[in-house]
């Protein structure tokens, strides 16, 4: 879906998500949301906060799982995805803190942590709605080129392009972590409904590759072509090459 601008795209999606949360809650169970970081979801989180303030969306019966987290950042680092989520969404809504799950980039036993993360998603009943951005390498989460279709939550190595894109927020490439923990492509594709957001002309080429190119592990977002309920929400610039 191509919108005139990102605000319109985010409004449409936020209203749809509020309806989904309320209908799942009305069926007597928590709604399970997969959340994303990066600059792209910021206007979407602003819309969710607005709907919350207007009384149209409650997170009281919502469980969240974030896609990924950098490895090796000191606790409380402002660029950690935990700090990002707190600042940009959780501090402004009524989510119980015990319902928030974000991979922990400071653990020593990474494989055990990843296994426990996958189990927590299963125990919550699976993800109802997964939000995604897209990196210039075509990654979803931090599933860089070469990530298998059936990959699960694990330690990943960041592509040089991804680290270059993150360098300004870290105050230089040398401060950008080299590794992360990320949900796998298989984990993401099990979500029942998926929305990928992309804005601006810098994303136009990779959006076209993901949507109309071959389905390949070289562009992990291309796996979404085979998902039964995945939608791209684009502004006019990101959709310009379609
Ligand atoms: C990081 C995140 C992704 C995000 C991507 C794009 O790599 N792990 O989830 O989609 O950046 O970032 P931005 O939205 O800032 O363009």
Helix content: 25-40%
Number of helices: 7
The secondary-structure element order is EHEHEEHEHEEHEHEHE
The number of domains = 1
Q: Please, what is the average pLDDT?
A: 97
Show unreliable segments: none
The CATH C-level class name: Alpha Beta
How many beta-strand segments? 10
Here the CATH topology equals: Rossmann fold
User: Mind describing the biggest β-sheet?
Assistant: 7 strands, parallel
CATH architecture: 3-Layer(aba) Sandwich
Task: Tell me the structural class.
Answer: alpha/beta
What's the alpha carbon Rg, rounded to whole Å? 17 Å
Distance between the termini: 11 Å
Shape: globular
Name the hetero compounds present: 2-amino-2-deoxy-6-O-phosphono-alpha-D-glucopyranose
Strand content: 15-25%
State the strand order across the main sheet: 1-10-9-6-2-3-5
Task: Give a verbal description of the structure.
The chain is α/β, with parallel strands linked by helices and 242 residues long. It has one domain: Rossmann fold, CATH 3.40.50. It contains 7 helices and 10 strands. The strands form 2 sheets. A 7-stranded parallel β-sheet has the order 1-10-9-6-2-3-5, covered by helices on one side. It has a 3-stranded antiparallel β-sheet with strand order 4-8-7. It is globular, with a radius of gyration of 17 Å. The termini are close together. The model has no long low-confidence stretch (mean pLDDT 97). The site of 2-amino-2-deoxy-6-O-phosphono-alpha-D-glucopyranose has 13 residues, from loops. It holds the Pfam family Glucosamine_iso. It is an enzyme of class 3 (hydrolase). This is Glucosamine-6-phosphate deaminase.
């Amino acid at each position: 879906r191509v919108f005139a601008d990102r605000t319109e795209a985010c409004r449409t999606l936020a209203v749809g998500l509020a309806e989904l949360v309320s209908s799942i809650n009305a069926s007597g169970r928590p709604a399970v949301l997969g959340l994303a970081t990066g600059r792209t979801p910021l206007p979407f989180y602003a819309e969710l906060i607005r709907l919350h303030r207007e009384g149209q969306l409650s997170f009281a019966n919502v469980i969240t799982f974030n896609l990924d987290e950098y490895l090796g950042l000191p606790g409380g680092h402002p660029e950690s995805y935990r700090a990002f989520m707190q600042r940009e969404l959780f501090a402004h809504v009524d989510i119980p803190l015990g319902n928030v799950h974000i991979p922990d980039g400071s653990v020593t036993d990474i494989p055990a942590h990843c296994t426990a993360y996958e189990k927590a998603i299963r125990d919550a009943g699976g993800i109802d709605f997964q939000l995604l951005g897209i990196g210039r390498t075509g990654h979803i989460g931090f599933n860089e080129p070469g990530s298998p279709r059936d990959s699960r939550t694990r330690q990943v190595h960041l592509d040089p392009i991804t680290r270059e894109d993150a360098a300004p927020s870290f105050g230089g490439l040398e401060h950008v972590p080299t590794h992360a923990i990320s949900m796998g492509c298989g984990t993401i594709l099990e979500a029942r409904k998926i929305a990928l957001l992309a804005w601006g002309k810098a994303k136009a080429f990779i959006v076209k590759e993901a949507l109309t190119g071959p389905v390949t592990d070289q562009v992990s977002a291309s796996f979404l072509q085979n998902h039964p309920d995945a939608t791209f929400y684009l502004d006019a610039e990101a959709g310009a090459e379609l």
